[in-house]
Structures are given as structure tokens and as C-alpha cells.
């Protein structure tokens, strides 16, 4: 079976968990994905099957769209709601105009320092492994681009926003950086990936649905080879 399968990744599953589930459930040897989602994140995971796995590197460069909720007043070890609180500051109410103006300062090309708890390697070792051992590492800033940020809802101290960004952008680190810019601490409370290139979450299949179908039924959910090849003319890389 060759082609692309769009999966709605549930919270607490790793991207590898999804790949492993599909490989074992449908007995497909070659399975890959086009862009990792943290366990705390939900939403669109673009999964490649069979010969389509050869094109993962092309599609993983697509821009991504997310809807996130940011909380103010805390900085956590992981920059999200799962980590230990390391700094706390209860801010006074911040007017929405200041929130919008601060968010807008991050639109465009930025230099982002990866979170200390991430899979990026330093001297051959994953940063998160070093971090949990208590070893302090200063990762090199990486060039990233934020194409757009829109505030969807503001209910102090929580901010819901939609953003489109380049590959490799850490939304949780962005929340932390914005929190510092606002004069308080911030962390990512929740995250949903809604789009990746030309692929949309509205067309993705849930894990419960995939659990209840067989291999023949899966074929109807996978974009066939001819559809897959046509994407090269329209994909946003």
C-alpha cells in the first residue's frame, strides 16, 4: 500500500506511536510521518506509506498551522503545561491591545532558541536527555519564520491564537518568549495542528476510526499514487 494517510493524532500519543500503530495494525513495513508532534499536541499528522516514504523530506518542509492556548504567569521546565513550574509571577490584567501588539512583534523571520527539552542533538546526545540529567546546554538559535498570528480569544490569563509558521518552529518556546516580552512568564497550555502544506485536519482520520477498519477499508482512506504525485505541483514548500 503506497500513498498518504492523514491522521488526527490524539493527546498523549507520540508521533512514533501513530506510525507504530499503523505499521502493526495494517502490517505495512514502511511507514513514516512528515513532522513530529509532541505528546501534549493533537491534530494533523501526515503519514506516508510504502514507496511514498521516499518523499517525506519534501513534505516535512511544508509550513504548518496551529491553534494554541497560552497561559500567563508561569514558566515551566518543558515550556508547556506538562512540566514542573520553575518560575511564577502572577501578573495584573494585561489589556488585549498590548497582547496583540506583543504577538505581532514575533511575525516575520526570527531566531528561536530550541527548548532545552527537545529532540535536537548536542554533541550527539538529545537535548531532553541532557536536560533531565541536569546538564545545562545553550542550544544555537535557529532561523524560523512566523507567517501570521491571530488572537482568537482572550480570557486573562489565557490566550487562544492561530499561527502559521515554518518547519521546526517550537510553539511552546514561542509562548515562553512572548510571556517574557509581556513582562511575566508564559507557557503553552494546549496545541492542535490544523494544517500542513496542502493537507488539512478536516480530512484526517481518528485513531478510533482506524482501529475499527481493515486493510481493504484503509485503502479508501489513502491518497493513491497518482494523487500523491500531483501534489508536487501544488504543495507549498
CATH class of the largest domain: Alpha Beta
Rg for CA atoms: 19 Å
Domain count? 2
Would you count the extended β strands for me? Answer: 14
CATH homologous superfamily of the largest domain? Pseudouridine synthase
Q: Which architecture of the largest domain per CATH?
A: 2-Layer Sandwich
Q: Termini separation (Å)?
A: 25 Å
Which fold name fills CATH's third level, the topology of the largest domain?
A: Pseudouridine synthase
Structural class, please? alpha+beta
Number of helices: 8
What string gives the helices and strands in order? Answer: EHEEHEEEHEEEHEEHEEEHHH
Mean pLDDT: 88
Strand content: 25-35%
Helix content range: 10-25%
Report the principal-axis shape: elongated
**Uncertain regions spanning at least 5 consecutive residues:** 232-237
Biggest β-sheet strands, sense, barrel: 10 strands, mixed
What does this structure look like?
This protein is of the alpha+beta class. It has two domains: about 5-60 and about 195-235, 2-Layer Sandwich (Pseudouridine synthase); about 65-195, Pseudouridine synthase (2-Layer Sandwich). Helix content is about 25%, strand content about 35%. Strands 1, 2, 3, 4, 7, 10, 11, 12, 13 and 14 form a ten-stranded mixed sheet that branches. It is elongated.
Amino acid at each position: 500500500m503506497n500513498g498518504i494517510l492523514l491522521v488526527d493524532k490524539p493527546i498523549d500519543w507520540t508521533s512514533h506511536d501513530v506510525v507504530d500503530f499503523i505499521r502493526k495494525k495494517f502490517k505495512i513495513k514502511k511507514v513514516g510521518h512528515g513532522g513530529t508532534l509532541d505528546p501534549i499536541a493533537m491534530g494533523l499528522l501526515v503519514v506516508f506509506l510504502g514507496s511514498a516514504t521516499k518523499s517525506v523530506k519534501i513534505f516535512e518542509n511544508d509550513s504548518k498551522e496551529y491553534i494554541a492556548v497560552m497561559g500567563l504567569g508561569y514558566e515551566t521546565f518543558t515550556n508547556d503545561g506538562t512540566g514542573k513550574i520553575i518560575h511564577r509571577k502572577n501578573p495584573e490584567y494585561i489589556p488585549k491591545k498590548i497582547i496583540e501588539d506583543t504577538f505581532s512583534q514575533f511575525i516575520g523571520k526570527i531566531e528561536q532558541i530550541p527548548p532545552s527539552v527537545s529532540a535536537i542533538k548536542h554533541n550527539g546526545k538529545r537535548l531532553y536527555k541532557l536536560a533531565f540529567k541536569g546538564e545545562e546546554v545553550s542550544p544555537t538559535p535557529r532561523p524560523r519564520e512566523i507567517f501570521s498570528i491571530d488572537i482568537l480569544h482572550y480570557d486573562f490569563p489565557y490566550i487562544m491564537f492561530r499561527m502559521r509558521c515554518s518547519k521546526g518552529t517550537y510553539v511552546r518556546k514561542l509562548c515562553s518568549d512572548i510571556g517574557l516580552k509581556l513582562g511575566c512568564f508564559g507557557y503553552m497550555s494546549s496545541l492542535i495542528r490544523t494544517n500542513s502544506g496542502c493537507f488539512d485536519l478536516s480530512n484526517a482520520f481518528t485513531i478510533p476510526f482506524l482501529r475499527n477498519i481493515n486493510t481493504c477499508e484503509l485503502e479508501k482512506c489513502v491518497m493513491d499514487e497518482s494523487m500523491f504525485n500531483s501534489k508536487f505541483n501544488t504543495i507549498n514548500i
